[in-house]
Amino acid sequence: MSIPPTVLCDFDDLDDPGAKGFVVDRNGARLRIFVVRRDGRVFGYVNSCPHVGAPLNLEDDAFLDLFKANILCANHFALFEIHSGRCVRGPCSGRGLEPFPVAVRDGKVEVAAASRAPDRPEEPRHRSGSGKS
Ligand code: FES
What does pTM read for this prediction? Predict the structure, then answer.
């Protein structure tokens, strides 16, 4: 059985650098995620700060710092590397965002197949970035 792809947005809908938030279904539950495009690559993360588990953004799609160099948690101003999700400054320094696998295919940003498998016990812990193909 093949599972149809879950398209999040067009690749060109994302500024470079830029980010967008989404709500997806994971094992029947709603999950807030966001994707970041930078240098032609797209990275996906669960929208939950490792500090206290709150969403990182206070406004729609506001996931980057002023310089668009890092992911920003607007609650207590933690900064995270875009490519790794690792916190480099703030109360959760050294911890990381939970990756959410995404892929770019035919100009669309999609939930990667590994995230869409039914009855999967938990998310893989591998890196979520994906280059434009
Ligand atoms: S909730 Fe993100 S830094 Fe505190």
Answer: 0.84
